[in-house]
Amino acid sequence: xxxxxxxxxxxxxxxxxxxxxxxxxxxxxxxxxxxxxxxxxxxxxxxxxxxxxxxxxxxxxxxxxxxxxxxxxxxxxxxxxxxxxxxxxxxxxxxxxxxxxxxxxxxxxxxxxxxxxxxxxxxxxxxxxxxxxxxxxxxxxxxxxxxxxxxxxxxxxxxxxxxxxxxxxxxxxxxxxxxxxxxxxxxxxxxxxxxxxxxxxxxxxxxxxxxxxxxxxxxxxxxxxxxxxxxxxxxxxxxxxxxxxxxxxxxxxxxxxxxxxxxxxxxxxxxxxxxxxxxxxxxxxxxxxxxxxxxxxxxxxxxxxxxxxxxxxxxxxxxxxxxxxxxxxxxxxxxxxxxxxxxxxxxxxxx
Length: 351
Prior knowledge:
Blueprint: E1 10-18, E2 24-33, H1 38-50, H2 54-58, E3 61-70, E4 87-88, E5 94-98, E6 101-104, E7 113-120, E8 126-132, E9 138-143, E10 148-155, E11 158-167, E12 176-180, E13 184-189, E14 192-198, E15 218-228, E16 231-240, E17 245-249, H3 256-265, E18 275-279, H4 282-301, E19 304-310, E20 313-321, E21 325-331, E22 341-343, E23 348-350
């Protein structure tokens, strides 16, 4: 985008193609941007991806595609960007794409389209049939109470989505909770989604057979920092492999990067093959310092470096080196979610 002139605009469309056959998503609609809109478009795609179902976030991605078209000057109608994550109709209702279907940001079903049928069921509940404007979608709304509605979205007499709206503000029907497929809840405040929650199915814990072969190939590693001008900077790295301890102090090196590089390079030894290196808070703290250094070491030595990330948090970092050697750097925070972590293998306690 840096090669574009300030007065040039591009139509751009972003897609994610997954390894699962036929599993493709398009994030939003085509956006009209220029080179000054890079940060806005990134934030838009992040927001749109957050609205997607969990399956899209846990399925392995194959590749991304970005389709674009530079708009010729003679075809440019206006010199303004066009970035939005919703469609707005002539009644001021915005429509967010959730579960592949455009859903309104209001619980006031009178604004969803044109009502063409009203009837009462055997329970005495009023049912409203509403056809969305400029669409073949039909909303069948069962009014449970003054604040609750059950909704079925139909296309060609087939139910494609169900949800339940509960208005939480008497003065504003744009402030409500929407439960979709009895699984996900979206909380709206004045038409904006402020919270998304997902019900996860859980099972009772079952007994497992005791593992008689305890794996002691474990290394613990910690980074000590100090505050300088309100910035936390490392000054010491400590390593313990169950038998020996090693410390790397900043006074012995030319720079922080030099200290980090030497301490991390210390791990790439044949005797540490298949070891797990545990950091107490890899995802939220230590990774800030080590990922860049690990990537540098991997590139210069032709090592294989692969981070495992879920929900924006680093779970582990896998590295292959030498003759089929490998180590795995792990975040202990996701294994023991408590303040005191008892490392019984080493017979000492980390606070």
